[in-house]
Amino acid sequence: MEVMLLQLFNGISVSSILLLIALGLAVTFGLMNVINMAHGEMIMIGAYAAFVTQNIFRAALPGEMFDWYFALAVPVSFLVCFLFGLLLESSLIRFLYGRPLDSLLATWGVGLALQQAARSIFGAPNVAVTSPGWLNGGWTVMEGVVLPYKRLFIIALVAVVLLLMYVYIYRTAEGRRMRAVMQNRDMAACLGISTRRVDALTFAVGSGIAGIAGCALTLIGPIGPSIGTYYIVDAFMVVVLGGVGKLIGTVLGALGIGMANTLFEFWTTASLGKVLVFLAVVLFLQWKPRGIIAVRTRSLDS
Amino acid sequence: MLTVRQLETGYGGTVILRGVSLDVKPGQVVCLLGRNGVGKTTLMRGIMGVLKARKGSIRFKDEELAGRPPAVRARRGIGYVPQGREIFPLLTVYDNLLLGLEAAGGRLKTIPEEAVARFPTLPSLYGRRGGDLSGGQQQQLAFARALAPQPDLLLLDEPCEGIQPSIVEEIRAVIRDIKREGRMAILLAEQDLEFVRSVGDYFYMMDRGMIVWQGEAAELTEDVVQRHLAV
């Protein structure tokens, strides 16, 4: 019983982390069709933004305030990556729409440059971010089943980010413009929508969400300049498995991979589990190449 | 109001329009006639800016628009009902209409009554997805969407193509209404001779990417029709 509950919780926890790192990519790759290899580096920038916020709190504010740095680190990470995304889109990505191979190479190069920049600024070794005190410990559900607060916090954070994304995409004028441009770029322009502005904003939002993911990753381990490369494959796997173009697909993709990962690792070993998950994803995509949720629109078909 | 001079445009390396000139005066209904594939849609797309002009000028309300993107042209007051209607398939009918207001640039917060009043069945469809509507319903929606920002010039590209007769009659009535009010000019590309005769003030005939004939209703004789439209 305890083992079952713990495995279930682990599965959800892994899924929530996968989802968080994939959500930003679901926007830049899923909605905009930019093969964004620099997504992992946006996560890295978000993580370092949290690290810097922590250091500023430690240096400038009294000790009792320190525990609250994390509440500020989340929006700071979002904002920093949002601005980075804006810069990247307007200086590079916008020249590469409709050229997937070029954007793949260019964003990969940007990723390498950002990694090196991080190495130059923060040094090559990993740095640790101290989790705030209120996230230490866990919630004892029953004898032998303790759910760490950090993991619960990440699950809650994912839920909040998902909700905000849903509201933004489906309930605001900005989101309506975004969906219109993604569905029929020419017609959206003919109605008076500035597609340039929508592209820049959408890419920036996707990058900002990657920043939040980076911020959350500081809770589960030390961070380094190449942290993004560990997650980029998983992120692409989640988005492709879920189906390009719909949020709910990304959620299901993350849940599928996260749960399968936990179960296979429980039944076999850590490395064999990963291989089995990868095999399962490959087989699934052979059967359904468009992923779990397939959106059929003319704009995506062409 | 709209003055097109020596417009050249096309797709990729292929030039389709070879020096087209035409005029639309305020409140006028100007019709563009011609067989399939002579460049009517290309001209519409060129005026709207979906296709970039290689040469020539497009002046609208004393402003040169030839180099400007489509969004700017829409905001200056050109409404567009494209061939194939181009409704956003995954957005609701209401969202599609709200997107029509983008060209008003914040001047309008809600959809003007008159844009929808001409199509009384639309409000009952507000919650449906655009892609789920029938062709006729999509055409009504495309009209209402183009009328929502109260444009000064409306480009209509084959609005009657593949539409059931009752909605064709509705569209005819709408065009006549607009004409009577006199606030909006219309450039209408259409193959149905009976339809254009019933609404048009001035006519241009196209063939192979050029204007080959122009004149008023009385001059649009059987002879002209035989020469340029008969297959």
UniProtKB/TrEMBL annotation, chain A:
Cell compartments where the protein resides: Cell membrane
**TM spans (from-to):** 12-35, 42-62, 68-88, 152-169, 201-223, 235-260, 266-287
One short Pfam family name for this protein?
A: BPD_transp_2
Principal subcellular localisation of the protein: membrane
What's its membrane topology?
Multi-pass membrane protein
> What keywords are assigned to this protein?
Amino-acid transport, Cell membrane, Membrane, Transmembrane, Transmembrane helix, Transport
Superkingdom of the source species: Bacteria
Family annotation (PANTHER family): ABC TRANSPORTER PERMEASE PROTEIN (PTHR11795:SF447), BRANCHED-CHAIN AMINO ACID TRANSPORT SYSTEM PERMEASE PROTEIN LIVH (PTHR11795)
* Family classification: Belongs to the binding-protein-dependent transport system permease family. LivHM subfamily.
Q: What is this protein called?
A: Urea ABC transporter, permease protein UrtB
UniProt organism field: Thermobacillus xylanilyticus
Lineage runs: Bacteria, Bacillati, Bacillota, Bacilli, Bacillales
Q: Which gene encodes it?
A: txxe 2453-urtB
